[in-house]
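Tokens as discussed.
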């Protein structure tokens, strides 16, 4: 598994989104803010006036139909719910010519199925996560059999605009879903629990939540020093001090094992959905 390198600015590239949800919006804003693609070269379509208005508010072209989006785009991002991907791709098949790159961010939809439905293999599958909304996403991609090195670099550029992206074999995607796809929810639960602990210890709710959130953000940022999490933990853990007393309670409550089990359970569920 390797981190992907970004390509140079794709001059004149037209990027289309099938589905105008929050993830499509975050990717659009990311590539616009990075200067990678101008708003006028991004297009989407959606029956909801709220979603259309959301995209037109930052300059994206909103068309009448998904087929128009495909016809006028060089790269087409499938950003619809997994349960309707097959129908959407089959409907668009007449418009999916081999000169177009199809990128799917639909969870659990395998490249082989996409290839069967689309009728060709110039495909890339990406698993992003919700922090892409603030430019801190963790995404992983795998390539279809006909995708080129240039396609890989282009998709890397798009997703680097909303965070970091790695390349991995598709066989890892269920585990990736269980870790980074579902992982933000685990962290939110941890932040909420830390804040509740602060309230139980006597802190006002607003202060407790602010401290919990900033502590998690800062702790994650400390990993940029290149030090192992265990080393960073040891730095805060004095003999007989407050931190080791708290860690002892975490170990007593099987904190590590519970997090590990959460990732494994989400991975297994992802596998079930992929096979259904």
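Sequence:
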């Amino acid at each position: 598994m390797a981190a992907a390198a970004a390509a140079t600015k794709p001059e004149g590239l037209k990027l289309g989104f099938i589905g105008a949800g929050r993830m499509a919006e975050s990717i659009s804003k990311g590539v616009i803010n990075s200067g990678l693609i101008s708003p006028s070269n991004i297009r989407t379509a959606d029956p909801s006036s709220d979603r259309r208005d959301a995209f037109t508010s930052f300059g994206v072209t909103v068309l009448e139909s998904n087929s128009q989006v495909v016809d006028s785009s060089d790269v087409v991002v499938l950003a619809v719910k997994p349960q309707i991907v097959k129908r959407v791709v089959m409907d668009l098949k007449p418009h999916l010519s081999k000169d177009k790159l199809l990128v799917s961010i639909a969870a659990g939809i395998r490249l082989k199925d996409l290839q069967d439905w689309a009728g060709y293999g110039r495909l890339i599958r990406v698993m992003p996560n919700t922090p892409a909304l603030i430019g801190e996403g963790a995404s992983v991609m795998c390539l279809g059999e006909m995708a080129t090195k240039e396609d890989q670099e282009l998709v890397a550029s798009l997703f680097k605009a909303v965070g970091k992206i790695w390349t991995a074999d598709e066989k890892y995607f269920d585990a990736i879903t269980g870790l980074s796809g579902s992982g933000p929810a685990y962290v939110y639960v941890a932040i909420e629990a830390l804040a509740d602990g602060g309230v139980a210890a006597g802190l006002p709710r607003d202060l407790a939540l602010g401290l919990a959130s900033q502590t998690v953000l800062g702790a994650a940022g400390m990993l940029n020093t290149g030090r192992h999490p265990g080393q960073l933990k040891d730095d805060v853990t004095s003999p007989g001090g407050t931190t080791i007393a708290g860690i002892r309670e975490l170990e007593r409550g099987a904190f590590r094992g519970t997090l590990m089990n959460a990732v494994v359970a989400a991975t297994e569920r992802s596998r079930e959905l992929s096979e259904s």
